[in-house]
Amino acid sequence: MRAVRAGVVVILLLLGSSCNSGPDRRVPSSRSAQPGFVSRAEFGDRWPLTVESGTLRCEPDYGTALVIVVGNVKYALNGRARGQIDQTGWRDSRELVRKDQDGGLANVGPLIERGLALCK
Predict the structure, then answer these.
(1) What's the predicted TM-score (pTM) here?
(2) Collapsing DSSP states into helix, strand and coil, what is residue 24?
(3) pLDDT at residue 40 greater than cutoff 60
């Protein structure tokens, strides 16, 4: 009986390890390979948004206007983009920004810095 239990445990361990050896299922590889793709998995505790991921895009028709695309919705991320909300129909990214420990908005500076590199 002990040999049977030991065999079952070994089989379960092998099955469990093979299931965990694949890619991270939370971030599809095709999306994560896109320029501008950012995610909570990448930023960890510094992730400022309430969504899991998005794609940063520079909008060259509006100078250095930077948006983050979540689903099919564009959110204005920096001041230049927020100044274009009425003309473009973009939403304000502050809708997505989580509260920090002091009750203010979390710092989106690292996202803006990353996104502005796309504008070059």
Answers:
(1) 0.72
(2) coil
(3) yes
